[in-house]
Amino acid sequence: MFTKMSCGWELVKQSFRVLQEEKQLLVFPLLSGIACMAALASFVLPLWGTPQAQALLQNRQMPGDPLSYALLFLFYFVNYFVIVFFNSALIACVILRFRGGRPTIGFGLQVALARVPQIAGWALVSATVGLVLRIIESRSERVGQIVAGLLGMAWSIVTYFVVPVLVVEKVGPVTAVKRSTSILKKTWGEALTSELGLGLIFFLIFLAVFLPLAVVAAVAFAAGQIVLGGLAVAAAVILVILISLVSSALSTILLAALYIYAAEGKVPEVFDAELLEGAFKAK
Predict the structure, then answer these.
(1) Are 246 and 84 in contact (CB under 8 A)?
(2) Structural domain contains residue 249
(3) Which of 248, 251, 250, 253 is nearest to 33 (CA)?
(4) Which domain holds residue 119?
(5) Would residue 283 count as lying in a domain?
(6) Running DSSP on this structure, what letter comes out for residue 34?
(7) CB 3.0 to 4.6 Å from 175: which of 108, 156, 171, 221, for a disulfide?
């Protein structure tokens, strides 16, 4: 476990070097977050006060009528489209950087716009899978959650490389899933270890930052120091947003590096060949 964490930490540091050189990459997860919030608001506000709005906001069970399921499917489609669109733009910029180019925000958006048919197709598949998992989960609260969780995890693993495949290879969703699975099989082992390590590292950073500020805010409000408490809350919110943006960008940079290594057998400039190889080989 410590070896895996060490490998993951080194890959995170190497991904961070890319982000330091290309700070504009943070714009894409920021735009994605804003667009997702706008999409959620566009569904919730017209339905405010209805069970459907509560289900979308609080991830509760959706009412079982066909209209509610159609609404949920449409929401999933829009949400997945937004996320994949900006992830595609970020992937395109990172891969251009790996190949010696100088990416810009405009370049990333241009590539994403050129892949709209592929992105829409993948959003359609993802929305369908998401709806099916939600229906399974709603059939039996406890068993359904376990089954849906396991199926969702398997789906996430199989489709790990789908977005870079869509961006680089310009294929449809079905071919992208097959290609993603093929890449995993070809270099099968622990391809997701680094991703899990990155998630754990940022979770620990989140706790180290958030908990002290939460304590300061609680103590300040209890003592009647409203201004100090408000400042602590504002600082916590800003830091959580920054951590989320950096974590999302680093995750995508690492994904792009793993794709280039797995699909093309090339080691991106700032990455260590042994570390990338270790991300795929079982220990």
Answers:
(1) no
(2) yes
(3) 248
(4) 2-278
(5) no
(6) H
(7) 171
Q: Is the pLDDT of residue 240 over 80?
A: yes
User: Measured between alpha carbons, how far is 8 from 196 in angstroms, rounded to an integer?
Assistant: 8
Within-domain flag for 251: yes
Sequence-distant (≥ 6) Cβ neighbours of residue 79 within 8 angstroms = 36, 39, 40
pLDDT digits over 132-169, tens only?
888 887 776 677 778 878 888 888 888 989 999 999 99
Question: Using CB atoms within 10 A of its CB, is residue 72 exposed (0-12), middle (13-18) or buried (19+)?
Answer: buried
* Residue 41: partners with Cβ closer than 8 Å, 6 or more residues away: none
Structural domains of the chain, count: 1
> What is d(CA 216, CA 101) in angstroms, rounded to the nearest whole number?
45
Indicate whether 192 belongs to any domain: yes
185 has a pLDDT exceeding 80: no
Both ends of the chain: CA-CA distance in Å? 10
Which secondary structure element, helix H or strand E, spans residue 219, and what is its range? helix 193-222
Token pair belonging to 223:
């003592």
